[in-house]
Design a protein that fits this description.
Pfam families: MRP-S28 (PF10213)
Number of strands: 2
Strand order of the largest sheet: 1-2
Distance between the termini: 85 Å
Helix content: 25-40%
Order of helices and strands: HHHEE
Domain Small ribosomal subunit protein mS35 mitochondrial conserved: 2-24
Largest sheet: 2 strands, antiparallel
InterPro entries: Ribosomal_mS35_mit
Radius of gyration: 34 Å
Protein name: Small ribosomal subunit protein mS35 mitochondrial conserved domain-containing protein
Shape: flat
Length: 96
């Protein structure tokens, strides 16, 4: 149908096809190296947990802080006599 009309691709820029280098493939040797490194990191973390002043358990620290936190009623001061306007400011009855 359009065999006699040449294809004009001046308006189009073609994407470059990027190929993953073969050197970056994960080989069995590299898998073993990564596994050994993970084991060493796990052993180091266990040693830190067992030592005094070592690795801290974040969940336990947060739960302990929440148990010791003051109650909300103790922290919020009572409101003065008056009303809150539409912007959240407190207006006393004397100002009206």
């Amino acid at each position: 149908m359009f065999e006699d009309i040449p294809l004009d691709t001046r308006h189009h820029t073609f994407k470059k096809q990027i190929k993953f280098p073969k050197e970056w493939y994960l080989t069995e040797e590299r898998k073993q190296q990564l596994l050994e490194r993970r084991k060493q990191a796990l052993l180091l973390d266990e040693a830190k947990r067992n030592s005094e002043g070592g690795l801290v358990d974040g969940r336990a620290a947060i739960e302990q802080a929440l148990l010791n936190a003051p109650k909300v009623e103790q922290m919020v001061p009572p409101l003065p006599n008056g009303r809150m306007d539409e912007w959240g400011a407190i207006r006393t009855l004397a100002a009206r």
